[in-house]
From TrEMBL:
It comes from Anaeromicropila herbilytica. It catalyses: D-ribitol 5-phosphate + CTP + H(+) = CDP-L-ribitol + diphosphate. This is Ribitol-5-phosphate cytidylyltransferase. CTP binds at L24, A25, G26, G27, G98, D99, T100, R101, N102, E103, T104, S129. GO terms for molecular function: 2-C-methyl-D-erythritol 4-phosphate cytidylyltransferase activity; D-ribitol-5-phosphate cytidylyltransferase activity. The record marks R31, K39 as: Transition state stabilizer. InterPro entries: IspD/TarI, IspD/TarI_cytidylyltransf_bact, ISPD_synthase_CS, Nucleotide-diphossugar_trans, TarI. It is an enzyme of class 2 (transferase). Keywords: Cell wall biogenesis/degradation, Nucleotidyltransferase, Teichoic acid biosynthesis, Transferase. The record marks R177, K234 as: Positions ribitol 5-phosphate for the nucleophilic attack. Its EC number is 2.7.7.40. GO terms for biological process: cell wall organization; isoprenoid biosynthetic process; teichoic acid biosynthetic process. Catalyzes the transfer of the cytidylyl group of CTP to D-ribitol 5-phosphate. The keyword Transmembrane helix does not apply.
Length: 252
């Protein structure tokens, strides 16, 4: 999982690459239990989860802007907590997401197109707002891989045996674990290419989408692997909050 840096650095110096962070905060946190707000706004340590995530992105100078997308009723709240916790907000914008994950990503591309123009080399680094432990190495490698290959996905090797059941009752197959990976985020794409592929999907193809990487897979396009980290967890359940607190203490 290595990529040459020369072409990326040269293009960046020439100003040909526009890179945007796209933080997806559209979830309502139903699996977190009885909470009054979506899980991205719950506290880990002394800050909301989403603030930890935004801070990781803001530390990467390559991002022209960090676009945060959330449900319409939470846009104002998101803007308020960003104002409270982040002093320099000059590169952060908060906009409304869509009805699905991929429609939310399309909203980010629409924002870029309307405000900055969508160039051939524009790259978007899409990431779950509730993965606050993404590393700078992962973010930087996503940018480099997408610039070189057009699309990449962050993964870790599967450590458990993967069992498939097509009827949810009995085993259909047990794939070879050495070829299995667990998907994480970021997922990073050439924005113009992603838009073209998405607009070319049929309604039936859209119904089977699980994430943006699958758009490339459905259309037979290559998507490369970036090595993730075990601790790049997605905070989904109450147990994950306890794990996140422990990870945060370990970082100090």
């Amino acid at each position: 999982m290595q990529v040459e840096e020369n072409s990326y650095n040269e293009n960046k110096l020439r100003g040909e690459i526009m890179v945007y962070g796209v933080i997806l905060a559209g979830g309502i946190g139903s699996r977190m239990g009885n909470t009054e707000k979506p899980k991205q706004f719950l506290l880990v340590g002394e800050k909301p989860i989403i603030i930890h995530t935004i801070e990781k992105f803001y530390a990467i100078d390559q991002f022209e802007k960090i676009i945060v997308l959330c449900p319409s009723q939470w846009v104002g709240h998101t803007q308020s907590i960003i104002k409270k916790y982040i002093k320099d907000r000059s590169r952060i914008v908060v906009i409304e997401g869509g009805d699905t994950r991929n429609e939310t990503i399309m909203n980010s591309i629409r924002y870029i197109e309307e405000n900055d123009g969508l160039k051939d080399d524009t790259i978007i680094v899409t990431h779950d707002s509730v993965r606050p432990f993404v590393t700078y190495r992962i973010l930087e490698e996503n940018i480099k891989f997408a610039e070189k290959y057009g699309a990449c996905d962050t993964v870790i090797p599967a450590t458990d045996t993967i069992v498939e059941s097509t009827d949810n009752l009995k085993i259909s197959s047990i794939p070879d674990r050495k070829h299995m990976y667990q998907g994480q985020t970021p997922q990073t794409f050439n924005a113009k290419k992603l838009k073209e592929l998405y607009l070319g999907l049929s309604e039936e193809e859209k119904e089977i989408l699980t994430d943006a990487a699958k758009i490339f897979v459905i259309k037979g396009e290559e998507i490369y692997l970036v090595e993730g980290e075990v601790h790049n967890i997605k905070i989904t359940y109450p147990y994950d909050l306890r794990v996140a607190e422990s990870l945060l203490k370990g970082d100090k």
